Amino acid sequence: MLVDVLRNDRPIRLLDAEPELARFLSPDERAQAAGLMLPTTRFPNGPFDISAALDPVAAFGALVLDGMLLERLVLGDHAGLRLVGPGDVISLTRQPRPMLFSYADCRVGAPMRVALLGPEMLLAVRRWPALLSGLQELIAEQSDRLVAQLLICQLPRVDQRLLAIMWLLAESWGHVTALGTSLPLNLTHDALGGLIGARRSTVTLALGELAERGAVIRQDRGWLLLEAPAPASAPSKERQVVSHVSLSAWTSSAPAAELAAVDARGELMETVKRLRYEHMRSREKLQHELKRLQSSRTRAAERRARITRRNRSSAPSG
After folding, report:
1. Residue span of the structural domain in which 265 resides
2. Cβ neighbours of 134 (radius 10 Å)
3. Cα 270 to Cα 262: distance, rounded to the nearest angstrom
4. What is the reported pTM?
5. pLDDT-based confidence at 168, cuts 50/70/90?
6. 76 CB neighbour count, 10 Å cutoff
7. Considering 152, 178, 195, which residue would you say is the last residue of a domain?
8. Alpha-carbon distance 185 to 109, whole Å?
């Protein structure tokens, strides 16, 4: 069983594990909660069963400290992937998977260490209820990232999706270096395809195009991102074919070949126009959704500020 390979580790201070959990606490409450310790556990690479991992230790969830968890869902011939990493919350649920999914599993993709959210966390929330607001905020941020991933999957070209998903992941787990933005996630082409809704072979070709134009560089344990996602689309294969057909139409000596090439060029130009129009519509939809998410975050920040002011005003003086 999975529980047999579970290894306990040294406890960790809650606010060292995730300082953002204290964002709604007053200074006095933060000082009191600083000593709260949570048990930690490590999991090696391989299959991961959330219930089997959390039930024996009476935990309702876990906070990922290090490592990576991959949740894979299959619907018909299509597979999707959700990535859970440091700072994310793994939640225990009793609800069964939707029947539409023909297959679902979780795997530890990189040795994972978690802080267990169990009796210690429940006692802490009773004493400092605002900790629950911080926990909910972490879960909301995960949800926002999942919505952004869904929108990225709707971009028309695979190279656009790859570049966008890498920058999305870099917002959570990347860091800026002198050479560019480093994304220290060693994801296979199959995993990248699951994140953006593309086949592994198509991902391999798109990665080759991105590397050829200097947008990304493969590193030992991840990627170096050099080109930010741009609203303007890069040259596509259709445009390259149009240039080739145009040239052959003027250099061919046979009139029939010229006419056939010109007809083909006209059809390709119409295809390019249609793809440009679809791209513009997708970009407008993406921008609209991003504005809506930004507005939601702004409202959430205002609510947090009100809660913080209320906590400070209600805190006993002296």
Report:
1. 237-298
2. 21
3. 12
4. 0.67
5. very high
6. 8
7. 152
8. 10
Q: How many domains does the chain have?
A: 3
CA distances to 71, 107, 121, 238, 312 from 48, rounded to whole Å, are 9, 5, 23, 43, 42
Phi/psi region, residue 197 (left: phi>0; alpha: psi -120 to 50; beta: rest), is: left
The neighbouring-strand residues paired with 105 are 72
DSSP state of 91: E
pLDDT at 66 over 80: yes
Radius of gyration over alpha carbons of the chain, in Å?
25
Is there a single domain that holds both residue 163 and residue 133? no
Return d(Cα 219, Cα 199) in angstroms, integer. Answer: 22
Closest listed residue to residue 189, CA positions, set 169, 175, 205 = 205
Q: Give CA–CA dist 298/106, Å, rounded.
A: 33
- Partnered with residue 234 across adjacent β-strands are none
Per-residue model confidence as pLDDT tens digits over 256-297: 444 444 455 555 556 555 655 665 666 677 667 777 777 777
Tokens 């809704």 belong to which residue? 197
Q: What is the pLDDT of residues 84-99, one digit of tens each?
A: 999 999 988 766 666 6
Whole-number Å distance between alpha carbons of 269 and 64: 50
Q: Which two tokens stand for residue 287?
A: 């921008």
Identify the helix (H) or strand (E) that includes residue 39. Answer: strand 37-43
Residue 307 falls inside a structural domain: no
Rounded distance between C-alpha atoms, residue 203 and residue 107, angstroms: 21
